Amino acid sequence: MSLRGLSQTRQRAWLATVIWSVAGMGFVLTFFTSGGVGGFPEDSGRHLTGAFALAFGFLGQWLAWWITRQREGGPLAADERDIETIARANQTTLVVVLVAIFAFTITLWTVYESAGSVPVAWMWFLAYGGVILASVTSSVATLILDRRTGGHG
Amino acid sequence: MAEGSIRSHIRRLRFENGEMTQQDLADRAGCTRQTIGALEQGGYVPSLALAFRIARVFGLGVEDVFEYDQS
Fold first, then answer.
1. CATH number, domain with residue B65
2. Interface predicted TM-score (ipTM) of this complex, two decimals
3. pTM, rounded to two decimals
4. CB distance B34–A151 less than 8 Å?
């Protein structure tokens, strides 16, 4: 699929969806493979890989923003409809992330209530997972809302 | 409160103004080509400022370009 001809908002949302999905897959594989949750706190290699996945997401998104920037003398890249779409996508993201964090922490509480303590690796998962979930949700919501307001190009 | 919809006559007006392209109208009205497309399809309701700018490109009033349909 070509990104040429799409609006800046759609281009950025598509690129961010792909970039953060790749980062998310890397993050999940890092966390759940080779030792699982129990061995995670002592495994600095996996900490580094997880940090790399997050850095890949942020650097990739920054690069995507730079590539799709407003060109001097070119047509207007974004307007009031894009601002409104992004604002609504951010509202959606806020709700999704709040619900996800609530569900995740309550699940941890339920599972580990009788043990009296939670494996610390889940805190790492929550921190990194929250960033990736917010990024993916924001870009996907932007694509959906942009299409709903007639943005097909 | 009853919610209506906004219908635009942009497509017809572009045709009547020498087949003005969406990009040309967008450039002159200060918005993106995609927003003009969205307005023509009725998927987006413009701000008052944008509605005025589009109407001015055609040399018309806002109500000649946009129509409020309360049904």
1. 1.10.260.40
2. 0.87
3. 0.89
4. yes
